[in-house]
Amino acid sequence: MKLEQSDLEKLAQLRAKKRVDSWSEQFKSPWTWLSILLGFAGLPILIMVWAGAFDPNSLIDLRGAIGVTLLAGTIATLLWLAQKAW
Length: 86
Description:
84% of the residues lie in helices and 0% in strands. It has helices at residues 2-25, 30-53, 62-85. It is elongated, with a radius of gyration of 22 Å. With 86 residues, it is an all-alpha fold. Helix 2 runs antiparallel to helix 3. It has one domain. The chain crosses the membrane at residues 31-53, 65-82. Keywords: Membrane, Transmembrane, Transmembrane helix.
C-alpha cells in the first residue's frame, strides 16, 4: 500500500510538471503569438463591422457582417490547429 501511494504521488508530480511545461512551451510557438496579435487586432474590427451592419447609412449589410465573422472564425480555427500541430 505504501508503494502505491508513493507511485501515485510521483505520477501526480509528473502530471503537474508536464502541465507547467506544456503551458510555457506553447508560448514559444510563432502561431501562438500570431493568434494573440490577430485576436487583439481582429476583435475591434469585428465590433466595428457589426456596429456598421445596423447603421442605416453604412455600406456594410448583415450578410457582409456574417461573412466577415465566418472568415475570422475560419482563420482563428486554422491558426489554432497550426499551433496545436507545432
